[in-house]
Amino acid sequence: MENLLKIDLHVHTVYSYDSLITPYELVFYAKKRGLDGVAVTDHDRLDGAIKIAGETDFLIIPGIEITSLGGHIIGLNVHESIPPNLSVEETVDKIHELGGIAIACHPGAPFKGSLKNRVTSKFDAVEVINSSAIPFNHCVKYAEKIAEKLGKARVAGTDAHYGPEIGYAYTLIDANEKVEDIVEAIRKKKCRPFGGPIPLTVRLKRELLGVAKKFF
Ligand SMILES: [Zn+2]
Ligand SMILES: [Zn+2]
Question: 2 C-alpha vs ligand 1 centroid, how far in Å?
Fold first, then answer.
């Protein structure tokens, strides 16, 4: 590996109903954490990711986290939205038809709408590190087993919903700073996951801000 990019492949913005991250904060915290780019993966919508990518010079990979009937699936480098509530297979096929890659995100995490044993060989990658998944070590082990069994690329992302959570996990990718090259490199397994869980103090601050947002 030579030209390694450091990218958090799973970040939610205010375009997700449950995230606090504004486009400004997204870029601010990503740069602060020394990332080369981020994938914006809002819940069941792509418009925010496309808009943000068009408004900044910072590297943004447009993505979407789709609520399929079998669990959450991330599509990266798609340019059209994919509807929720399709089967796992239909969802992955649609991502591929649109030229994107399908990632089985947090496959073993409880309370997150996870795929569990519904990850198939059609997927391009498995998110083995998800910084928001609890219990963290159990979730990593579970996902590692799936990635190994299916022989798929292993990636990492934070699933951040609050600016300071960005960058606690990232994927090192051997590619040029072009979205097409990056997803191709992931498909070819020219990447490695790094990072850990979001620290409890950061998590608590997010919860408090989330509550405050609801009431004021
Ligand atoms: Zn999810
Ligand atoms: Zn997510």
Answer: 31
- Domain regions of the chain by residue span: 4-215
The number of the ligand nearest the C-alpha atom of 160 reads: 2
Q: Which ligand is nearest to the CA of 131?
A: 2
CA 156 to ligand 1 centroid distance, Å: 13
Give the Cα-Cα-Cα angle 173, 180, 81 (nearest 5 degrees).
Answer: 110
Read off the pLDDT of each residue in 18-43 and give the average, rounded to a whole number. Answer: 97
Q: How far is the CA of 112 from the centre of ligand 1 (A)?
A: 5
**Whole-number pLDDT of residue 216:** 67
Measure the CA angle with vertex 179, ends 152 and 41; round to 5°: 70
| Digit-coded pLDDT (tens) for 187-212 | 999 999 999 999 999 999 998 988 88
* pTM for this entry: 0.96
Quickly count helices (H) and strands (E) in the chain. 6, 9
Average pLDDT score, the chain: 96
- Ligand 1 center from residue 65 Cα (angstroms): 7
The percent of residues above 70 in pLDDT, for the chain, comes to 99
Q: Give the model's pLDDT for residue 111.
A: 87
Ligand 1 center from residue 28 Cα (angstroms): 23
Question: What superfamily would CATH give domain 4-215?
Answer: Metal-dependent hydrolases (3.20.20.140)
DSSP strand E in 32-160: where? 37-43, 59-68, 71-76, 101-104, 125-130, 153-157
